[in-house]
Design goal:
This protein is mainly beta. Helices cover 0% and strands 58% of the residues. The N and C termini lie far apart (40 Å).
Length: 120
Amino acid sequence: QVQLVESGGGLVQPGGSLRLSCAASGTAFSIYAMRWYRQAPGKQRELVAELASGGTTNYADSVKGRFTISSVNAENTVYLQMDVLKPEDTAVYYCNAEIWRDAAVTANYWGQGTQVTVSS
């Protein structure tokens, strides 16, 4: 069992910044990739950023140049630095961890979500 605990959400004005964090805990595990998703009201969940075990990062076009995903503690904690926030960034943000079960199979775990609201 792997548990993901998120923090850092809140209310911020347009142009401001927030940093989300996600800490993974539980029995011994190896992380294949960690990701941040978001879901805005009335819209489907979308992938915002991902960090693969080899260090490769990917971002949605809508956040490139503004958001940065990074990790510490041997990939057991992942951060999402969000700069130049816009009202359209308002959403519930979810942390996702893809964990190796063996050499060929992974499993996904999800955080509970944290609300980010960008409004003046």
